[in-house]
Amino acid sequence: MSNLRSDGISRREFLRASAAVGLGLLAAACAPPGAPAPGAEAPAAPEKAEEAVTLRFLTQGGSQSAFDRYEPLIAKFQEANPDIKIEPIWEPGGAIEIQTKLLTLIAAGEGPDTYWAHTYTNAGQAKRNIQMDLQPMIDADPSVNPEDFLAGAWLDFNIGGKQIGIPRETTSTILIYNKQLFEENGVPLPSKDWTWADFEAAAKALTKGEGAERIYGTADWNLNRNTWIKMWQKGGDVLNEDRTKFIMNQEPSISQVKLIQDWHHELQVHIPGVEKGGFSTGDLFTTGRIGMFPQFSVFFNVMASEFEWDIAHLPLDPGDTRTTRVASAGHSMYSGTKNPDAAWKWMAFLASEEAFWHFVKTGLSVPSLRAVAEDPEFLKTESLPPSAHIMIEAFEYGRPEPVAGDWIGVHREVQAALDAIYGVEKADPKATLDAIADRVNELIAYVPGE
């Protein structure tokens, strides 16, 4: 909870003040007209009790799980803070739908005081200064300490040196692997110090069979978010350092895209999209047709596996940068709020250990608060793999995507290009990425609502 106190008076203080005023009025009534009450100064008028502050909170809605996630917390917060009322605004959907609703409310002069936020829309909103910089409040409130949060998740809500939110849930990308398949083929299990040469050797050894029964060593490196991790390790990136120019069409990124293209076509250890037959990677993994693949740390899609599986750190070559992708959602405060102190109290409560344990019990995948994420009680959850600690360790070296402008639009453009490169077209990586550069540069310059 925040240490910021309300300026309102309590009911007991109000009654005490009222009694004192009443006695003064009685003494004055017994005195001659125009004379002051004996031994007393003229009483001050009683202070007027402040009305409760109403905070509008925009968040995901449309399902019982969404209501269950916040309604009990709202009740607890209001019980502890009777001078503050939380008015939820439930909006079905994800990052885009919430941002659309947010911009609509702001345009109507009805912006919420606080709202659910996602890393993919943070940067665009920051260009319009929509989020309040929380750093001064964090500095003044010892109950919210940046070091209490997983490093990569906290960084996800820092734009241009401003802390524009507090992360709620987060994910790190790790490698999921079929332990049984590795052991049956005599392939050493992934370790923290394994290299990309080890990865390729394992992928080759696991790949066998033909047609609909073929087993592939790996999958999902064709997804832009996973291709980017491979680039980051070698020093490449999607955008330049100040996020104003597309540079994925340059080295060292191009060579990593070409390498993944080779996994598809030359080595044929990566399942092609056309071979999936409409099934998801999770479906194919649970039926034993994929040996290993990168995924953010949510595991519901592989829980049906009837064999032993686990997770590992991504491979790393000597001299490269150990990194992975971190993506988060959380809560932000609108810079136009008229009740920043009350809004901060609500934000700080949502960042408390009590709130995070509630989030976990209502289905939150990976909480960003260390005290909960690193607790054995959380790590032994049935929905997590035996080596769940690895996904937590990954936050210490993971990084956010270089989000800028219309980042979801950037995702679409890059993915379409990669589909052409990795797919049956076998498009040239350099030429294909050059062709989308201008469009991506337009997208990263986009300011939402303008």
- What fraction of residues sit in β-strands? 5-15%
- Rounded Rg: 28 Å
> Which sequence of SSEs, written as H and E, runs from N to C?
HEHEHEHHHEEEHHEHHHEEEHHHHHEHH
For this structure, the CATH topology of the largest domain is D-Maltodextrin-Binding Protein, domain 2
Query: What is the count of structural domains?
Result: 2
Number of strand elements: 11
**CATH C-level label of the largest domain:** Alpha Beta
Biggest beta sheet summary: 9 strands, mixed
Which range best describes the helical content: under 10%, 10-25%, 25-40%, 40-55%, 55-70% or over 70%?
40-55%
Q: In the CATH classification, which architecture of the largest domain applies?
A: 3-Layer(aba) Sandwich
Low-pLDDT residue spans? 1-43, 45-49
Q: Counting H and I runs of at least 4 residues, what is the number of helices?
A: 18
CATH H level, superfamily name of the largest domain: Periplasmic binding protein-like II
Secondary structure category: alpha/beta
Using the alpha-carbon principal axes, give the shape.
Answer: globular
User: What is the residue-mean pLDDT, rounded to a whole number?
Assistant: 90
Terminal Cα separation, in Å? 36 Å
